[in-house]
Amino acid sequence: MPDHPRPDRAELIDIYRTMRTIREFEERVHTEFPGGEIPGAVHLYAGQEAVATGVCTVLTGDDYIASTHRGHGHAIAKGCDVTAMMLEIYGRAGGLCGGKGGSMHIADFGRGMLGANGVAAGGVPLSCGSALSAKVRGTDQVSVAFVGDGGANQGAFAESLVLAAVWQLPIVFVVEDNGYAQATGTRFHLGGKDIAPRAEALGIPAAVVDGYDVLAVREAAAGAVQRARSGGGPTLLDCKAHRFFGHMEGWDQQAYRAEGEVDRLRAEQDCLQLFAIRALEDEWLTTAEIAEIDAAVRALIDHAVEEAKSAKDPDISELLTDVYVTY
Amino acid sequence: MTRVLSYLQAVGEALRQEMQHDPSVVVFGEDNIGGTGCDGRLGNAWGPTQGLHEHFPDRVFDTPITEAAFVGAAVGAAATGLRPVADLLFVDFAGVCFDQILNQAAKLRYMTAGKARVPLVLRAMYGAGMRRGAQHSQVLYPIFAHVPGLKVVLPATPADAKGLMAAAIRDDDPVIFFEHKMLYFSHGEVPEPPYVVPLGQARIARPGRDCTIVALGRMVAEAEKAADVLAAEGIECEVVDPRTISPLDIETIYDSVRRTGHLVVADEATPRCGVAGDIAALVAEHAFHALRGPVRTVTAPHAPVPFTPALEDAYTPGADQIVTAVRATIPAFAGQERAS
Questions:
Q1: Active site includes B53?
Q2: A233 domain-assigned
Q3: B85 CB-side CA count, 13 A
Q4: Based on CB atoms within 10 Å of each CB, which residue in A78, A229, B221, B306 is the most buried?
Q5: Which residues of chain A make contact with B26, given a CB cutoff of 8 A?
């Protein structure tokens, strides 16, 4: 791993804990899903943890993110309550969105998390809006638009790049190129190797980033966020990190992936392992500290799942609330 | 002292007064300033935003032709503390940004169990009559009224255009504000101080005892013309202008039908799955016993809007068809009542 500025110890612990929490959350949802208690469509983020974590670690609580259908990792990295998220995924009362959103629409406006989104690139224009809002209100809040390689082909994404460039918005576009748009590979669907040049064509600074290296992502994000915060306009980060699981739980057996591909990915390009090895080698963290975090995270996720399984369904009267503020 | 403004000026005055009233109101769209990036004079917008940037240079923006991005940005900005008024220009262009309206603006509040508020106004010019052809003349409000989470406003007069725009901007939900292009240069009295016409309150444009005509948008003036013609025959029509179709003040319509016993709905939109059919169905379901004749609807035909004046004029419903519909719904009855 190349050298990147090393965060202080507290931050290193936070980075590891966040990545581990996302991983444990996603592995557990994957394990629980076949049990049939989790309704609907669930898209898991495992493998890409370094991107959400590296980006969100340089954001403040007041900054905004807009997420994708694969949004659990972004939500956790932005500080959303893990138990409330699990309740939401199970569709229970007390879920982060009262059971009306589900995995694909997890949002927590109080934490600047403007929502996972059921539409590819659907959240990107929303990010332009939160960026405009900060600019008009005269705050230094930054907005981050996460989008996948599939969503980056949408017109809404291309239009948002233009709008952000023209309006010089305080925004960072974080493309997560995980290699697949559902079951179609980037080699076919992307029309080129990278997405970064699409931004560069509009005068937006862009970089291709190793999405398995949390410190590389963090460094790139820190520069982009600083640019946005200081009035320097938009940046695009084209982060490369493949996912461990299929497009969607319960449906995708990943037959489109090469034999052994995922095993190699887990063995050689697991962002958590890579970080842990480096942290131990360079004595940032001890084995005991890592084990302690792992155990605490496991307990947290166990608790979240227990809570979700024993929680009640929302009251039927909730069906008709929150359609409008007034009507 | 009375003061006369055009419908277009009335919308513009509401924008200016609401921006004055609330610093979180921002206005943007293609050519909402006009002249940005050109060598000539800045500010030569032609619509209701003309001159607005001179008062509020930091809150009126031009956009590139990026409806998906800037309508979505209006949603995101609304959800994070602003009250944006975004301009779609022709409502027909909703075709290129419908996701942001249908799946984002309309759904955010519900999907977050009320954590999000989306106080945005989307201005949308609509309607036939200006020889703009099939992609610039549609009457698409039924599509939006069909979607829970959206409010849909159709001012018929300059005074309502101002008061409904003020209400739309102050409202905490997403509002699609339909401005009929053929009404832009119609004139009427408009009070100068700021005021609000509440969403969801119909207006009795003309009282009458024999037949209720519910008329939408530009059809209100056509219904009033029809009522003049019918009055000469002794048929007194009550013209009801719902002003907003979501929410819809159906109670005022029921009350009117209970008084008159007859209903005609005049709607410039195409007939299938539309507002005219919806109102007819609601009355049939909830005020059936008040009806003393069949409900009639007057709508455009189920066809795209044609370009050439000869065909477009034949396409657009007007006073003549409304007169015919009223006569059809109360043939014998009107005569009997006059005799009694």
A1: no
A2: yes
A3: 30
A4: A78
A5: 132, 136
Please list, in sequence order, all residues whose beta carbon lies within 8 angstroms of the beta carbon of residue B219, skipping any fewer than 6 positions away: B156, B266, B267, B268, B298, B317, B322
Which residue, among B70, B98, B150, B176, would best test binding to A if mutated, counting the most A CBs under 10 Å from its CB?
B70
| Structural domain count, chain A | 1
What ipTM was estimated for this complex?
0.94
- Per-residue pLDDT tens digits for A156-200: 999 999 999 999 999 999 999 999 999 999 999 999 999 999 999
The correct CATH number of B4-189 out of 3.30.870.10, 3.40.50.970, 3.40.50.720, 3.40.50.2300 is 3.40.50.970
Inside any domain, residue A327: no
Question: SS3 for B136-172, per residue?
Answer: CCCCCHHHHHCCCCCEEECCCCHHHHHHHHHHHHHCC
Return the residue of A nearest to B152 by Cα: A327
Question: Which residue of the set B136, B187, B262, B302 is catalytic?
Answer: B136
Instruction: Please report residues of A whose CB lies closer than 8 A to that of B103.
Output: 118-119, 122
A chain contacts of residue B117, beta-carbon cutoff 8 Å = 325
The encoded tokens of residue A90 equal 């199970």
Indicate the SS3 state at residue A35: helix
Nearest to B104 by CA among B120, B88, B126: B120
> Which residue has 């849909």 as its token pair?
B152
> In this structure, how many other beta carbons lie within 10 angstroms of the beta carbon of residue A326?
10
Asked, colleague to colleague, whether B4-189 and B203-339 share their fold, the answer is yes
A114 closest CB neighbour out of B69, B76, B99:
B76
Look at residue B280 and tell me whether its pLDDT is greater than 70.
yes
Count of other CB atoms within 10 angstroms of residue B52: 22
User: Which DSSP letter does residue B93 get?
Assistant: G
Domain spans in chain B, listed from the N-terminal domain onward: 4-189, 203-339
For residue A92, is it within any domain? yes
Is A264 within a domain?
yes
Provide the 10 A C-beta neighbour count for residue A36: 8
CB pair distance less than 8 Å for B112 and A100: yes
In this prediction, residue B340 carries a pLDDT of 39
